Amino acid sequence: MKKIISILVRNKPGVLSHVAGLVTRRAYNVESIAAGPTENHQITRITLVVSGDEKVLEQVSRQFEKLIDVIKVDAIPHELALTGELALITVSFTPEKKTEIMSLIALLGLTIKSIERDSATVMIAGSAQSVDTAINGLAPFHIKAMARTGLVALPIGGVTD
Amino acid sequence: MTGAQAIVHFFKEMGIDLVFGYPGGQIIPLYDALYDSGIKHILARHEQGAIHAADGFARASGKTGVVIATSGPGATNLVTGLANAHMDSVPILAITGQVPTTSLGTDSFQEADIYGISIPITKYNYLIKEPSDLLPALSEAYYLTSSGRPGPVLVDVPKDIQTAHVDPSIPKPVSIPGYNPQPAPKAEQVSALAEALTRSLRPIFYVGGGANMNNVAEALLKLAEASDIGVVTSLQGKGIFPDGHSLSLGLPGMHGPKYANIAINEADLIIGLGVRFDDRVVGDVRRFAPLARIAHVDLDLAEIGKRLSVDLPVSGDLKLVLEELERKLSPIKRPEWKKRILELKKEYPLTIPKSLKEIKPQAVISALSAATKGGAIIVTDVGQHQMWSAQFIESKKPRRFLSSGGLGTMGFGLPAAIGASLSGRKDPVVLVSGDGGFQMNLQELATIRQYNLPVKIVIINNGCLGMVRQWQQFFFQRRYSQTIFEYNPDFSKLAEVYGIPSQRIEDPNEVERAIGALISSKGPGLLDVIVDMEENVLPMIPAGRGQTDFYETDS
Prior knowledge:
CATH class of the largest domain in chain B: Alpha Beta
Largest interface: A-B, 21 and 21 residues
CATH topology of the largest domain in chain B: Rossmann fold
Largest sheet of chain A: 5 strands, antiparallel
Radius of gyration of chain B: 24 Å
Radius of gyration of chain A: 18 Å
Number of helices of chain B: 22
Largest sheet of chain B: 6 strands, parallel
Strand content of chain B: 15-25%
CATH architecture of the largest domain in chain B: 3-Layer(aba) Sandwich
Number of helices of chain A: 4
Low-confidence stretches of chain A: none
Mean pLDDT of chain B: 96
Mean pLDDT of chain A: 92
Number of domains of chain B: 3
Number of strands of chain B: 18
CATH superfamily of the largest domain in chain A: ACT domain
Distance between the termini of chain A: 22 Å
Helix content of chain A: 25-40%
Shape of chain B: globular
Low-confidence stretches of chain B: none
CATH class of the largest domain in chain A: Alpha Beta
Number of strands of chain A: 9
Strand content of chain A: 35-45%
Shape of chain A: elongated
Oligomer: heterodimer
Structural class of chain B: alpha/beta
Strand order of the largest sheet of chain B: 2-1-3-4-6-5
Distance between the termini of chain B: 69 Å
CATH superfamily of the largest domain in chain B: Thiamin diphosphate (ThDP)-binding fold, Pyr/PP domains
């Protein structure tokens, strides 16, 4: 099973090393990790998507809680999770395929960030599922490069309990 | 005030009057500030020796040990010591010099990223980049070493921070958001434990290093005696409950006496107290204490349920939990269980093999126990002698048996004994070492001599890496690959070179007298005991096996 774990940490140098180091050290399976500022500039939020059985996931939360820089760990239940992800995708094409690709981009609702002679870079922001849909849609063509931010999440209402 | 002077000022304000270390280029400003500071500095002969000494000091005294090293190789030489202290939750403040902030990241001479290197082996660590961060970081670091679950904390101080101007005011112990060092126990968890204990017919306390405080030891003794609860003590817990007590079952697990493991196998309730349910104790998780419900009291929530499922989790400070438990329990006598414990101990005693020709290592350690009567700080290295010491030394009080448990660091013993001898305790310090581990940090003999530290050294000299050799004998058809020392120096002569009185014995009849002479001597001393090479540590439960899968030897 997968779990979204949201961690508030002291915004200190090295805090990402501490969090990422714990993941490798304890051999956890992390699918994505995303970090960024919060409403308080002294606090950073790190969102992880972790997979494993219930026991492992319980351990993950507890081990994170133990890190000195960690202020709070929340496992956000899926039914309460508001999630979002962003991806940039560069797709390359031959001139004769250009029209086909452009209509596909429009159909998928992707934002065009740049168009070159033989490639285009598009952006999608939405649920992880809509990002997957966009990638799958473009997959028949040549995806030259891709950058996904990983999932960020908040519970409904902003805070748990 | 310079950063370096501020560090010394901080030591004084915190009452730190003894530090261990080894100087080098990027830490010269701090050593300059120490020069006429009045703080006692013990100059080891290797940074690893310095940090193990700080570790031994901390284990024996209960106070934070302080170690100082330079950048690069000085700092990396601390790595084993940090990992060792981290595994056994020993409070250490490590201060390392670093290249100036302006040179960071340029692969300067003697630059190493000790901040990055030490993340997984410290409780927390700092790289100071601004002079104004120095004292707040030191203050927080020192607080972290000993609060909550103790551990090593490293502060990396670039040279220009040591020479920069620093405001000398020391921030009050900081509150760190999300860090709760003394969590109050949850009443319902303690009630559930009290209820389970009341109903239990065959309960066992399984006590670890987290209980290493006098007041906890007293509370435990009271509880166990009042309600006839058997007690096993992990390697780090040895001495917290007095060995030799009618309810004491000694060391559980791989090399514990059979009676300890059979008792665990028969128990209906195991109560872990500040202990990790380590793999060397538990073996096969599915077959550990098959009849028992498992309760686990620990201040570190991440320990509860880490290795095996726990029926009765109790998170919180051990002392507070025991106080609460005592209030909730009315003593229950369990004469049948007490009788069974005595019976098991009688039926499966630890025995010392007899020999007229060669010295048996168990006989040496047993003689040492008899000569010190629980009134010494026994320090061990790692290997067979360590397990024999755990079996045959009778420890009566907390912090009198110091051993590298979690990491199993060969070379720990000699420097740790140095630290223990400086801990302020009056008890004599005796190191029991193997000939292998002894050679891993024997340079510290010079430290012993320089400060004339009354460390008594007993080398259980079997001329081999005994524990690995034993595994090769049992599990690898006696193929003794690289475990036999075809050359060893004469350790007695070596000690002489360092100006340490010494003796070498080979005759079983000499053991008692030689041990007696060593213990009653004034200053440092070394006794090199040549023992039977193929002696094994028994009983043994092979790794990952069930609690009563005792290895049967062919001999």
